[in-house]
User: Which sequence fits this backbone?
């Protein structure tokens, strides 16, 4: 309004043209001046008060083509701003016709297209134009035009084209406002507009100009109700069109129209690309503007059921990502879609199932609450029939970030199923499962370390699952487990201090089950074996470098290197490549590489040094021979002593001494280190032999510390540090301690340099009180004396005659004494025997250890005969020296005597020769003792370990096959594993028969002398003894050696037994029985039995060749009862025949289910009751280590000795 209250009028009358026709504008400078003045006055006018009649002249002038299409862009900008103001002032009506409005808006669009040039002097004019259009809602005029689609499409193209991330926010908001008006005002939205909007959601557009993507997202969210039907129609058109093209392509292929099919293939590929693009847009819209997909989600649900696999796959993946994005809300809103999507887990196509499992597992990460519904379905896919589905399932689980919600969402059944996949038949699945489990464990370790009960229940079993894989005995699995052990499980590379490393090792080890611990130690022993082989290999490499010519022995070295390369390569998955690389490594002759590898496996180096040598030597190797790096790097990693390392020892000892949660685990690890890598303990011997650790009130802790000391002293003889305090404490244990304290202390004293006088004094004290029947400490004294007898022979020799006679006549021959044991029990521990029983056990040990401690030249015939005679009597009489006595006492004496005879057999040739054939047969029958603890302990902890370690003669091998009637399957499996994995690989010379092949004749000899053989009942006897030979055949016989075994069995008829001719006749029967069973096996397995080309000889200690006259007199009739063959032929499935119980082993008892005693120490798992088997100091023997290795194949749990 004017000051007097009247309407505002435009006072300026611009002169814009040089003539009345308005075809030529005035000069540029004057035109700018006029337009600027006009724009300023129009800007000042208000819509409500303006007199629009005063605008008529200007309104018409501004539409002149000479202005709208002026060559100066600035002129057009001023004109556009003026027209925008006129439209504002005339609103809501426009002073122009439809064609004029169309022309005006085209000018507007042209000006807005230049908004991207913010440096232009006319940028403020264009910004003003944008603001005016947005504020006044001028674009609404476009919707009234009869052909508005073109203008609207131009607006969208232009405005999306000028948006950039660097633009001021207010400009982008004004553009959004205009675009929103252009969608809201028209009755329909042009398809081109939808295309432009959706274009902004493509991946490339998002990367090139994220501002346009944001603008499109804001626009779609602001106009959701408008866009829904258009977006649905867009996707429907694309999907239907693409699907029809694909159906046509498949029809052409089905009709055999190859030429047209090839032409349609390109179209089919294009249609698939269109489908992928469309589904990608759906995903992006779901992220940015999910409201626009109201009708698209049901459309995706329909796609889940189409016949086209590619479309089902795309739909499954897209919906999976949508559920991950919106989760519970989307699933609740579209319950039918959620249910149908879950059903795709059972799709007939593995590709769809793979897509489903990938996204189902990703829901753990993005929507933990929703994913809980999927646990059982994920377990189902972990067991899918297709290995690729299983592999992807395992891989996807390994990619999860284990936040607290994710941990809570994953079910225990999923963890168990993932653990089962570690044993999958497909290597790729196994590998992914192992990696996934280890990765998960690494992420949840903090909760496990804190002892959280929920975490322990769900994740605590992961290390056990992984280490149980050792029982599969597959090089590929073993290499993978060793890799993740040093990686994700222990993660030492990311832990910088040794104390924390030790803590992590203890957390892992403490969580292991008994079988998993055996698996862990088996991996450590595998590493030790490879280290041993590698050490010899390096020595030969260096020797070859020093003497390369054959004349200097190089030829023999080359052969040995090849053999070692084969043995080392057998421990890794790709044997051929590793073997070839090792051969090339041997020819490098590079001292730096060899030194680096040797230092890597040196137990004297700490973790930091090991890693340093690994890196430096591999770097050197990559420079010399890059092709060897990939294949030999696993060897460097395998032999690197980082899991068990010297740097961890002080902290392990600290845990043992300080008690706490991990004391039991630390004790076991220290025990292992002392037995396998004692050099690691040398630098920590002061902490280990700390006297204060022996002066604690906890008796069990004292005994366990003494055990650790003993193991160390055994590993490094004469290594016990001598000090007055330690001597006094150990002597006090010998004089006043309990049995274990006295025994261990006595051994430690013998391992001190310069402690001979103390040994003599203590030995004298014990001997002087031997005949004191009322001495309360008789058993501890005897235990200590057994140590002095073996390890301080000079101190004991003074009293040896007196002691030996006393022990035999006054102790072992003593009448029965009432003991504390319960005769109703099948077996009791040694402690439950009572003082008299324990004393007899140690009397037996003293006698044996006396012989073991003497030099060969110091042995006397009388002494050897006295000891051997006593042991023989105990073994052959079931542990009794005379009638009567406790059953439990006899069991322990039998077990002790049998173990002592094996010790003597392993002590040297002179003792081995002193044991006769009857001794070997008697020891074999211990394997069939009615008491489970006696036979299993003797077999698994004494006989088998000694055979595997090659400490005793091969004539003891047949005894292990007498377990054919063992009622405990685990024991038989232990034997089978030891035979197949260890004994079958032992050959006296390369190329000769293995020791188990060679022993078939000895086995038949043992059977011929078995007390169950009844010549009066030939048929039952054959049926009774056939299972022994069958068990042997099942353990030993292969296609490669069946001819050899058949020939060995037949060769027996050319020999006779030394001694009883009755035994020879039995041998001939067993010879034909063995051949019959071998032939039966070969027929069942389709193996050929050929003539063996080599010459065979039978053991001369039990066989002698038949004289020619006896050969000629050999009856032609078969020795094998034909009735046996007839009955055998009638019985189907030879391997499933029922077994008759042998007479002598008819009372064989099964293993007791209830343990006799359990460990009382808090935090320590109870061991099986084999502490009595040779608790005397098998910590000083090597049996335990090998016994654990023998056990690896089975489910039996033979315990360690104390």
Assistant:
């Amino acid at each position: 309004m004017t000051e007097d209250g009247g309407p505002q009028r435009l006072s300026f009358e611009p002169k814009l043209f040089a003539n009345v026709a308005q075809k030529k504008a005035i000069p540029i400078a004057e035109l700018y001046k006029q337009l600027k003045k006009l724009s300023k006055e129009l800007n000042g006018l208000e819509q409500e008060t303006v007199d629009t009649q005063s605008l008529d002249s200007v309104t018409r002038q501004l539409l002149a083509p000479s202005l709208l299409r002026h060559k100066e862009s600035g002129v057009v900008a001023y004109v556009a701003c003026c027209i925008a103001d006129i439209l504002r002032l005339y609103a809501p009506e426009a002073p122009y016709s439809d064609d004029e409005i169309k022309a005006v808006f085209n000018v507007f669009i042209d000006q807005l297209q230049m908004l991207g040039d913010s440096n232009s002097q006319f940028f403020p004019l264009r910004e003003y134009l944008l603001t005016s259009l947005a504020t006044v809602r001028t674009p609404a005029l476009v919707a009234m035009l009869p052909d508005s689609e073109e203008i609207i499409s131009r607006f969208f193209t232009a405005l999306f084209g000028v948006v950039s991330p660097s633009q001021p926010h207010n400009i982008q908001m004004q553009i959004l406002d205009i675009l929103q008006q252009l969608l809201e005002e028209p009755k329909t939205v042009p398809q081109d507009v939808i295309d432009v909007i959706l274009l902004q959601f493509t991946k490339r557009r998002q990367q090139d100009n994220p501002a346009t993507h944001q603008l499109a997202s804001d626009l779609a969210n602001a106009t959701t109700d408008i866009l829904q039907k258009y977006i649905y129609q867009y996707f429907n058109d694309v999907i239907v069109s693409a699907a029809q093209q694909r159906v046509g392509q498949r029809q052409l292929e089905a009709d055999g129209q190859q030429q047209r099919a090839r032409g349609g293939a390109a179209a089919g590929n294009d249609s698939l690309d269109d489908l992928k693009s469309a589904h990608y847009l759906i995903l992006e819209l779901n992220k940015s503007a999910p409201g626009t997909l109201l009708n698209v989600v049901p459309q995706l649900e329909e796609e889940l059921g189409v016949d086209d696999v590619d479309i089902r796959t795309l739909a499954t993946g897209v919906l999976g990502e949508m559920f991950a994005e919106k989760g519970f809300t989307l699933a609740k809103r579209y319950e039918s879609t959620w249910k149908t999507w879950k059903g795709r887990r059972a799709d007939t196509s593995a590709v769809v199932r793979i897509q489903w499992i990938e996204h189902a597992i990703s829901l753990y990460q993005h929507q933990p609450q929703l994913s809980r519904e999927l646990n059982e379905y994920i377990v189902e896919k972990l067991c899918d029939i297709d290995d690729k589905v299983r592999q992807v399932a395992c891989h996807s689980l390994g990619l999860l970030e284990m936040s607290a919600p994710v941990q809570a969402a994953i079910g225990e059944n999923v963890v168990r199923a993932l653990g089962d996949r570690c044993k999958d038949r497909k290597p790729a699945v196994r590998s992914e499962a192992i990696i996934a489990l280890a990765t998960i464990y690494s992420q949840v370790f903090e909760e496990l370390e804190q002892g959280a009960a929920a975490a322990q229940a769900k994740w605590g079993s992961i290390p056990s699952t992984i280490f149980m894989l050792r029982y599969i005995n597959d090089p590929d699995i073993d290499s993978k487990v060793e890799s993740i052990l040093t990686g994700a499980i222990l993660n030492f590379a990311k832990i910088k201090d040794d104390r924390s490393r030790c803590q992590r090792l203890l957390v892992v080890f403490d969580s292991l089950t008994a079988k998993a611990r055996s698996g862990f130690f088996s991996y450590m022993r595998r590493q030790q074996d490879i280290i041993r082989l590698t050490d010899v290999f390096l020595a030969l490499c260096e020797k070859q470098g020093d003497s390369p010519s054959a004349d200097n022995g190089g030829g023999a070295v080359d052969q040995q290197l090849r053999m070692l390369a084969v043995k080392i390569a057998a421990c890794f998955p790709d044997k051929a490549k590793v073997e070839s690389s090792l051969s090339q490594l041997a020819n490098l002759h590079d001292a730096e590489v060899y030194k680096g590898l040797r230092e890597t496996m040196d137990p004297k180096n700490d973790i930091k040094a090991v890693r340093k040598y690994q890196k430096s030597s591999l770097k050197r190797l990559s420079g010399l021979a890059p092709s060897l790096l990939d294949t030999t790097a696993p060897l460097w990693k395998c032999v690197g002593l980082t899991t068990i390392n010297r740097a961890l020892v002080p902290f392990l000892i600290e845990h043992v001494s300080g008690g706490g949660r991990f004391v039991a685990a630390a004790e076991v690890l220290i025990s292992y280190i002392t037995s396998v890598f004692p050099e690691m303990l040398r630098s920590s011997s002061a902490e280990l032999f700390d006297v204060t650790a022996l002066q604690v009130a906890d008796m069990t802790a004292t005994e366990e510390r003494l055990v650790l000391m003993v193991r160390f002293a055994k590993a490094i003889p004469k290594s016990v540090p001598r000090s007055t305090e330690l001597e006094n404490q150990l002597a006090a244990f010998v004089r006043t301690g309990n049995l274990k304290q006295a025994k261990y202390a006595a051994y430690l004293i013998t391992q001190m340099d310069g402690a001979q006088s103390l040994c003599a004094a203590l030995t004298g004290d014990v001997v002087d009180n031997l005949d004191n029947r009322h001495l309360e400490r008789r058993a501890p004294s005897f235990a200590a004396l057994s140590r002095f007898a073996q390890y301080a022979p000079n101190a004991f020799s003074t009293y040896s005659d007196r002691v030996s006679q006393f022990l035999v006549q006054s102790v072992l021959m003593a009448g029965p004494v009432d003991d504390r044991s319960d005769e109703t029990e099948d077996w009791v521990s040694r402690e439950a025997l009572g003082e008299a029983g324990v004393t007899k056990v140690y009397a037996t040990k003293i006698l044996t250890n006396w012989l073991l401690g003497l030099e060969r030249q110091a042995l006397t015939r009388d002494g050897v005969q006295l000891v051997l005679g006593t042991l023989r009597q105990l073994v052959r009489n079931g542990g009794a020296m005379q009638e009567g006595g406790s059953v439990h006492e006899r069991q322990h004496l039998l077990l002790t005597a049998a173990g002592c005879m094996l010790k003597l057999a392993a002590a040297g040739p002179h003792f081995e020769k002193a044991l006769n054939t009857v001794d070997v047969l008697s020891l074999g029958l211990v394997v069939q003792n009615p008491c489970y603890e006696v036979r299993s302990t003797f077999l698994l902890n004494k006989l088998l370990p000694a055979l595997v370690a090659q400490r005793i003669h091969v004539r003891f091998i047949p005894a292990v096959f007498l377990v054919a009637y063992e009622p405990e399957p685990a024991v038989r499996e232990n034997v089978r594993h030891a035979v197949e994995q260890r004994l079958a690989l032992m050959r006296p010379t390369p190329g000769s028969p293995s020791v188990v092949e060679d022993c078939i004749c000895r086995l038949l000899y043992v059977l011929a002398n078995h007390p169950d053989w009844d010549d009066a009942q030939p048929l039952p006897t054959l049926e009774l003894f056939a299972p022994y030979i069958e068990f042997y055949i099942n353990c030993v016989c292969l296609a490669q050696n069946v001819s050899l075994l058949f020939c060995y069995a037949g060769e027996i008829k050319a020999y006779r037994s030394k001694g009883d001719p009755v035994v020879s006749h039995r041998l001939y029967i067993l010879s034909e029985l063995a051949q019959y069973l071998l032939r039966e096996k070969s027929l069942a397995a389709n193996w050929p039995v050929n003539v063996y080309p080599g010459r065979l000889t039978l053991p001369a200690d039990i066989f002698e060749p038949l004289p020619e006259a006896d050969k000629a007199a050999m009856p032609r009739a078969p020795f094998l009862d034909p009735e046996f063959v007839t009955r055998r032929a009638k019985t189907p499935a030879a391997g499933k025949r029922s077994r008759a119980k042998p007479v002598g082993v008819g009372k064989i008892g099964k293993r007791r289910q209830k343990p006799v005693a359990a460990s009382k120490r808090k935090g320590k798992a109870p061991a099986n009751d084999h502490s009595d088997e040779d608790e005397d100091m098998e910590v000083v023997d090597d049996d335990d280590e090998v016994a654990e290795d023998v056990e690896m194949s089975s489910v039996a749990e033979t315990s360690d000795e104390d």
